[in-house]
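Quick start: read one record
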Amino acid sequence: MIKTARYDWLDAIRSLAIYLMVIFHLSYDLDLFGHVDIDFAGDPFWLWFPCVIVFLFLLSVGMSLQLAHFPDYRWPSFWRRWIKIAACAIAISIATYFAFPRGWIYFGTLHNIAINSLLCLPFLGRPRLSIIVAIIIIGCELVGVQWPWIELDHSSMDYIPPLPWLAWVLLGIYLQSINFYRFLPKYPSAKLWQTIIWPGKHSLKIYLGHQVALYSLVWAYTLLTQ
């Protein structure tokens, strides 16, 4: 039961991130085709919305690393997963370079996950160190510390550098280390709960394919309603 609860709450956090991501990108596509008018660049709500989504994804990365690779590192599994994520990140860069040359993604969410998955390995099984470093990073961000990283001269559609976002991966390691799910309410009936958290079990596939599907649907809807 404990093992099931661990995985279920991890999938729940991923699922919440996916639901919010779909809402955000559907709103973006509807705005792009003129069905709604949203100020993504100026409205604080829409500026913070994607930050919350990335926060949830990175939190789940830290939790899953702690759950899967402590107390024993499972290197074959880790590297298979890491290569898959890195390959997907590179594919996104290539695809967006040709599709959106003025805003192509050179270091987005998946790039961040690939790098921070490596940076966080020494923190597994060290919850105190994880939370201390996370707090230090957040504190530095609040006082305006500038984090050096790759930054090209164009505005990227998705730019998530390793720092300060590493803090949320470390927070995920900490929460999983203290078995955070013990403090959460019991989830609904098994069938309903498994349906709700289903997206979290297939997060990478949905992450890669959802925007193509949403864009196609909104495009088709636009043609039908013109």
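Residues 14 and 203 are 7 Å apart (CA to CA).
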